[in-house]
Amino acid sequence: MSEGQWWFCLKHMRVEPEQGCPNKDRMGPYASEEEAAGALQRAADRNKAWDEADQEDE
């Protein structure tokens, strides 16, 4: 595992090191490449949980 911060680039749909695309096009930072690679899945899981919580509130 490499040290430093990692990002998931939404423009290129890939993990990038700290030196990469502008932050406006990225999710992160993450502590590892593996964590950055799971960024989209984590976001989808959180969105689903929030949607379900909203439905319970109605």
UniProtKB/TrEMBL annotation:
Domain of life assignment: Bacteria
Annotated stretches, region: Disordered: 18-58
Q: Where is the composition biased (Basic and acidic residues)?
A: 18-27
Report what the protein is called.
Answer: SPOR domain-containing protein
Species? Nonomuraea spiralis
